[in-house]
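Thread title: Can someone regenerate the structure for this chain?

I was given the following input by a collaborator and told the matching structure tokens would be attached. They weren't. Posting the sequence so someone can regenerate them.
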Amino acid sequence: MISPELGNEHIGNPVNVYTEWGKLEEVILGSSRLFNHSGIDSTFRFLYDNRDGKFSEREMTPRIDQRYIDERQEDLDNLANVLESEGVTVRRPNRLDEVQPIVTPTFSSSTTASDSPRDMFMAYGNTIIESPPTNRKRFFEQYLLRNIFRDYFDRGAGWIAAPMPMLSDESVDYSFWKDNLEMPIPTPEQVDSVMDIAFDAANALKFGKDVVFNVATDNHALGFSWLKRTLPREARIHPIRLSDSHIDGHFIPIAPGRLLCNEVVMHENYHRLPEQLQKWDRIPILDPATNFDYPSDHLQMASSVGMSVNVLSLDEERILIRDTAKLTIGALTRAGFMPIPVQLRHSELFGGGIHCSTVDIRRQEDMEDYFES
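Best answer:
Regenerated them for you:
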């Protein structure tokens, strides 16, 4: 179990995170070099091509033009410069120099870049947590960040990884998430023993003493139980059923008592949030959805509105946001925030915005209770 760092005891620790909005001091930022769709399979399609529950009926193998990868990398490199200019230390994953095959006793796939490291990794308190991948292509993604995590560990941080999943067709719950929305969340003994503990770190959002965790499948339900037993006893983890996996394209906290929300998907779903969050003020994304203007053999992995809500708070005022979200930038300014527009092209194509592309490692904050009545 993670030990909490209370009071000022966190000072000097390389890792310290409890919220999505405390003053940001250090971050890991992804890289898109050698991002690829080689060897994609059912686990990939289930996550990124399953809006209707018929992911298994689509056989097309998408591709991605090199120019989009180059432009994405250019924007990520510029994002690093913006973060550093705002006083944030930036760490980057090791470069993937070659796409290599992945072969295990239960599946085969191939490696890809760590473009959206928040999908796989999170920090809470003074500990790095590696989530058990739900996508076979990302099975060894932690190798690209191992030297960074080892450095944090050497300097006093905790470092734990969830049990590695088998990711066999039998151990993955392929049930359609919308069919599970009204189902109670099962306890471990209610889940078939063949099922993996598997979830993405982006299923969770941090609110100080409280963590909200989305559960769409039996794999996620096991992940919720594992995380609940792993976080400090003082922490409270709230399971919800909201989406297929990640929730930082639906809503995100940007300051105590304030949420930035994707009204397209949230307007009928606020009742699914913990009761305390339902009382928070909401700022809706105002920019309309845009067309997915790419070749027909390119896969849309996220919505434009979802990527606009996918912001990164530097503190309770400064917010990095996509420069295309002009109406929302105006709304945030009127609400007293200081939005910092950043270019991050092709987020819908890569399935990750500014929040997805980063992992907050150290914020200037303590564990506080923001859910008090």
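The helical segments are 42-48, 66-85, 146-154, 218-230, 263-266, 304-309, 326-334, 347-350.
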